[in-house]
Amino acid sequence: MPILFVLAFIILVIILIATKKGGVKPSSHYKKRPSVMNSSERELYLILKNTLADKFIILSKVRIEDFVDADNQSLEWRKRQSLRGRIKSRHVDFLICNLFTTEPLYAIELDGYSHRGDSKIERDIFVDELYKNIGLPIEHIRVGSNFADEVERIKNLLITK
Question: Residue 103's domain spans which residues?
Answer without folding.
Answer: 39-160
